[in-house]
Amino acid sequence: MLSDFSSLIAATARWLTSAFPPNGGALAAALCDVQARQAVTVAAWLRFPTPTDAALAGMAGSGGSVRLDWITGVEGGGEPWRSWVDEVVASWAACLLAEPRLAEVAVSAALDGGHTAGAPMEFRRLTAPDENDRRAAALLRHPDLLDRVAGLHRAELMDLLAAGQPRAA
Fold it and tell me: Residue 137 carries which DSSP code?
């Protein structure tokens, strides 16, 4: 299932780590990337809960990073991967990164969906980051810095999680 929209997940995670870069060297970059990918994966699974939704997202692509770049002041350039960034997924991922308790609820909801297909999934770096994770992703997890992105679609995420089950985008 993940392969149906892996480009969306990869691009959106890359956007997050570009906009909110890691603090430190290669290990910090890897830890920051894992946290972003976990948050984006959970957000994408919630946004595209069915195999049909995932396939359509993979075929149609998404809106790109233009609005996100403008909101954060990131220089967007013309890199092709930016067209695969999903604004809603980025916003929801930002919510999850800023609020570990919300991340736990979201992971639970996402794992109840059909994306895991029986495969064991772990999102520890998202839901229970250790000190190294926090230090590496200080900007990526900073609630005040993330607020402009998280606030774009926070209400929809909260409604979705309050309803108790993912729905089609």
Answer: T
Residue of 69, 98, 103, 100 whose CA lies nearest to 83: 69
Q: Which tokens is 152 given?
A: 């774009």
The region, left, alpha or beta by phi > 0 then psi within -120 to 50, assigned to residue 122 is: beta
CA separation for the pair 147, 59 (Å, rounded)? 30
Total-model pTM: 0.92
Structure tokens at 39: 């948050």
Radius of gyration for the alpha carbons in the chain, expressed in angstroms and rounded: 15
Burial code (b: 16+ CB inside 10 Å, e: under 16) for 3-30 equals: ebbebbbebbbbbbbbbbebbeeeebbe
Q: Each residue of 14-24: pLDDT tens digit?
A: 999 999 999 99
